[in-house]
Specification:
About 35% of the residues lie in helices and about 20% in strands. By secondary structure, the chain is α/β, with parallel strands linked by helices. Strand 9, helix 7 and strand 10 form a beta-alpha-beta unit. The longest helix is centred in the middle third of the chain and has 18 residues. The termini are close together. A six-stranded parallel beta sheet has the order 2-1-3-4-5-6, with helices on one face.
Amino acid sequence: MSVWVVSDGRRGIENQSLGLAEALADLTPVTITRHIVRWKPAFDRWPSALKQPWMLAEGGDLLAGPDFPDIWIATGRATLPLSVRIKAASKDRTLVVQTQDPRWKNRAYDLIVAPKHDQVSGPNVLSILGSPHRITPARLRAAAPQFADRIAPLPHPRVAVMIGGTSKAFDLTPEHAATLADVIADTVEEAGGSLLVTFSRRTPLIAQTLMMQRLKPVKGWIWDGAGDNPLFAMLDAADHILVTEDSANMATEAASTGKPVHILPMVPLKPQTKFARLHQELQDHGATRPFDGTLPHWTYEPLSETHRAARVILAKRANRS
């Protein structure tokens, strides 16, 4: 089967669709093609209902044909005007899957794969814990050899730290970043362990610089963004994972490893109803606990929601054949 992964190209957005496509590939032979949807600047912020294919940036019209995929998996606002039209363009050949809550024409898609904490409902909605993603034990193991020279000598416990950043819901102020870094450094040094640190593209530069300065004396590797991304190898090598609370993607990815996930607090910018539901769900599953400056060990069943969603997609496709 042919599967198109459609997004605006941002890593955190694309990884949701790509993760679902790769989960399909784990279950059955498929060919995966990645497509990026970008609108001309004059039309980018227009409502989805007003956007037309001629407003797309050059090369972006995926509805022109003549070839269409068996399965279309899309994520993000930029894809919506095409997702609602692909079924007609393909003469109903294409199964249309949209991740997240589209918040527009929700009945137009064959399947919406939405986070449970978003509380989306409907006959075509599959609610999953967290977001779909690319993390699997096999992919983590496959990434490890590339970075073994850098990671293998580091002492245990190895603590992977995934730092997010500023969003509509949270902030990472310089003061808070410094405090977090000091507590993390003290905890890892007291345990005699090492650090494996990555930052998000949303991490404010001042906050990142402060954290790097304060974490640098601790044994480990702080990735500065140069070269290939070592995140998969870091998660494979980690004994514990620390994740800031601002990202559903990062928390869900970490919880798929089966390793203890410690949630780092951020500075809230508004009441956190949806994020509070997500973190409660992850705690109820046994995957996460609030970081308290210690590194207790616990076990739980690794999340496998992306593969559960992939099985539902295959079942829907089979029912159409």
